[in-house]
Amino acid sequence: MPDNTLLTVQKLTKCYGKLAVLKDVSFALRRGERIALIGPSGSGKSTCLRAINFLDPPTSGEIRLDGQLVGRHQSGRQLTDAELAPQRAEIGMVFQHFHLWPHLDVRANVALQPKKVRGMSAAAAGELADELLAKVHLSHKAQEFPGRLSGGQQQRVAIARALAQRPKLLLFDEPTSALDPELVGEVLNVIKELAAEGRSMVLVTHEIAFAREVADRILFMDGGTVVEEGPARELLDRPKEPRLRRFLSSLSENRA
Amino acid sequence: MLFLQTIYANLADWGPRLLDALWTSLALTVVAFCLAFLIGLIIEYLRTRRSALVRSIAKSYVVLARGVPVLVILYLLYFGLPGAGIILGAFAAGTLGLAIVYGAFLSEVFRAGLAVIAPGQREAALAVGLTPVQAFRLVLLPQAVRHMLAPLLVNLISLLKDSSICALIAVPELTLISRAIMSESFLPLHVFALTAGLYFVIAWSASLAVRAIERGMALEKGQSKPGKAAETLATQAI
Amino acid sequence: MNALLFERIFHALLSGAVVTVEVSIGALTMALLIGLVLATIEHLTVNRIVVVSIRIYVELLRNVPSLTFLFLLYFGLAATGVRLSSMTAAVVGLGMIGGAVLVDIFLAGFRSVPKGQSEAAAAIGLAPLMAFRLVILPQGLRLSLPPLGNYALGLVKDTSLVAAIAAPEVMFNARQIVNETFATAWVYCAAALLYLALTFVVGQMFALAERRLEY
Q1: B142 contacts chain A (CB < 8 A)
Q2: Fewer C-beta within 10 Å: chain A N or C terminus?
């Protein structure tokens, strides 16, 4: 039987000095599966996500993508950013604050990676960019500069930029937290469409309803550890851990 | 009037020699600036490395190069190095000396220019799989250049002015040649006024360009007055 | 290197250092005076002619090399019968150049004080001059401190140029002693260290002042 695991996270720990913000976090993601990390702020979920592509290198623990060790040499030495580049190219990341490149127009933002990292011709990279911009419903903005777009549009461009990597895995770091409420929907819709295509994703999000709809499994984190995990609906509808119950009820109070 | 007439009367003799010397000054300035640009980039690159040793080497370089007068460095290169068996011509020593000093200045310009860029920019570049060098070249530098343009020009102007110091190691540039002319003609005031005028025309036009750039950037940002003044403060830090 | 030689070098550089400090302090004082007075005038006056005259002074001196200006002052004035001693020419020359630099630094400092400050001063009924002295000046000076420190560092280094008009400061003495002893590298390295020490002290003084004046 072929191994269907795409990503394994093994005993991930991250310390700042004496403070441990991640403690022994482990999980595995199957090909085509979507996992959402939820939890209160400061629970370590963003750190965990950013450790996967080594933007925040973990203090210890192991990340494997397709069985291949990420971020470290066999000897355990941490790779330099230059050595990490090919591995990061296989992992798309969408940031909370988009981080589009303001000096490039939308099309160039999306085409940069295929051209410069994967050696695509300028024409082919441009075509790919157009195709992906259509996918996020922004074809008409291809020539604009990011500064002239709304937050929701910028985030959709950022998603197109991540897709242009042809990534094996997509990471979303609170993709809607920096958006005005009325712009959240358009971004979530795009992510849902991607989910429907069966892409593998890890999402950090505050949108519980969205997590329920999109994610196969949910990991609830608190204090740097995974407190409870399970199939999305089951976990949200029948939370076992008191901390998760408190967290979910505090969210619904805020909603009301 | 008599003053100008005297200058005018001597222009046929002085003019070509001063213009020749001016070319040397400009050559010194441009070559030194290009070298300094490279040195500055390297220093700034080393300053952001992970290794503490490399970082402290780069930092010490800046402290040393900024704490010692250009003249001392020129003397060391021109008079001191031959003792170690390395003989540099006056022009080479002058260029190198200026480049060493301005390399440190420019590294500060690069740092300030890069500091303006949001931290997420580099992360986003690394996240799509660009190498650090690519991230710098394709994402950070193009954004920083706009912020660095004015301070770079300011440094170029002050480098032109400092190129006069090479007179003291006998590079036949503008200030040295005007001194030579002075000792033949016994008209020091006339010669040096003319020389100062030549420097002024070049340096001042460049400062006007700096101001235009600063104004443009302030307008673009829709900045209010305080912000603009702060930027002027920054470029005056040299 | 024997002890005698070392002593000679040491003495030459030390007496040079005294002159360097004198020239630096003299020029700095003069520059501060010129800079503060002219910046205040330019900030407050509405008279175009006054502003233009100040601008001409500033632009002329900021866009000419220090060395060229020192030559102009020392050799040029002598030809018209005004013989300045090399020390006077050094202090006046560097002071005038510094004055031009400081006008711009102080002006930028005054202009960096938020507009609300002078509005608040006007609102409580302070006359413009009082408002400037009590509200804008203190804050503007504080804001000018970092570039002022940079200027002072540059000044200490620029004093090395007055060797060219025979003021017996560090580099002048260094050259003399090299001509006598041929200990070229030693002497100039020692001079470099001396300047490093001087600039370090100046840097620390300004850093201290900045901390003291923090609010």
Answers
A1: yes
A2: N
Percent of chain A having pLDDT more than 90? Answer: 73
Residue-wise pLDDT tens digits, B102-140? 999 999 898 888 888 888 899 999 999 999 889 988 998
Task: Classify A256 as helix, strand or coil.
Answer: coil
Give CA–CA dist B49/B56, Å, rounded. 10
Which stretches of chain A sit within 8 Å of chain B by CB?
53, 55, 80-82, 84-93, 95, 97, 99-103, 112-113, 116-117, 161-162, 164-165
Is C75's CB within 8 Å of B229's CB? Answer: no
Range of the domain at C127: 3-214
Question: What are the angstrom distances between the C-alpha of A21 and each of A3, A55, A127?
Answer: 31, 15, 42
Q: Cα(B27)–Cα(B7) distance, rounded to whole angstroms?
A: 26
CATH class of this structure's domain A1-90+173-256: alpha beta
Mean per-residue pLDDT over chain A, rounded: 91
- Partners of C164 on chain B (C-beta within 8 Å) are 167-168
Nearest by CB to C188, from B75, B162, B237: name it: B75
- Check CB contact under 8 Å for C72 and B80: no
Give chain A positions within 8 Å (CB) of B127: 53, 55, 88, 91-93, 95
Q: Record the tokens describing residue C54, joined without a space.
A: 């100040």
β A225-231/A217-222 pair status: antiparallel
- Contact call for residues B94 and B171 (beta carbons, < 8 A): yes
Which residues numbered 189-208 in B keep a CB inside 8 Å of some CB on C? 189, 192-193, 195-196, 199-200, 203-204, 207
| Cα C92 from Cα C89, distance rounded (Å) | 5
pLDDT tens digits along A145-191:
998 999 999 999 999 999 999 999 999 999 999 888 899 999 999 99
Query: How many domains does chain C fold into?
Result: 1
Range B53-74 burial, b when 16+ CB lie within 10 A, else e:
eeeeebeebbeebbbbbbbbbb
- Domain harbouring C177, CATH code: 1.10.3720.10
Query: Which positions 100-159 of B are in contact with C (Cβ < 8 Å)?
Result: 157
Element (H, E) at C13: helix C3-44
Note whether B226 contacts C112, CB cutoff 8 Å.
yes
Q: What distance in Å separates the CA atoms of residue A140 and residue A124, rounded to the nearest whole number?
A: 19
CA–CA distance, A128 with A112 (Å, rounded to integer): 11
Q: What is the pLDDT of residue C189?
A: 87
Could you state, in order of their start, the residue ranges of all structural domains in chain A? Answer: 1-90+173-256, 93-167
Is B203 close to C64, i.e. CB distance below 8 A?
yes
Q: How far is CA B1 from CA A159, B8, B12, B14, B201, in A?
A: 72, 10, 18, 19, 21
Give the integer Cα–Cα distance in Å for A164 and A160: 6
Closest-CA distance, B140 to chain C, in angstroms, reads 27
Residues from chain B that touch C104, judged by Cβ atoms under 8 A, are 232, 236
3-state SS, residue A143: coil
Q: What pLDDT, on the 0 to 100 scale, is given for residue C173?
A: 82
The Cβ of residue B116 has, within 10 Å, a number of other Cβ atoms equal to: 11
Which chains neighbour A (Cβ–Cβ under 8 Å, 3 or more pairs)?
B
Name the pLDDT band for B96 (thresholds 50, 70, 90).
very high
User: How far is the C-alpha of A156 from the C-alpha of A150, rounded, in Å?
Assistant: 10
**Cβ-defined contact of A88 to B128 (cutoff 8 Å):** yes
Query: B187-221, pLDDT tens digit by residue?
Result: 778 888 888 888 899 999 888 888 888 888 776 66
**Residue ranges of B 47-66 with Cβ closer than 8 A to chain C:** 63-64, 66
Tens of pLDDT, residues C89-145: 999 999 999 999 999 999 999 998 888 787 777 777 677 787 888 888 888 888 898
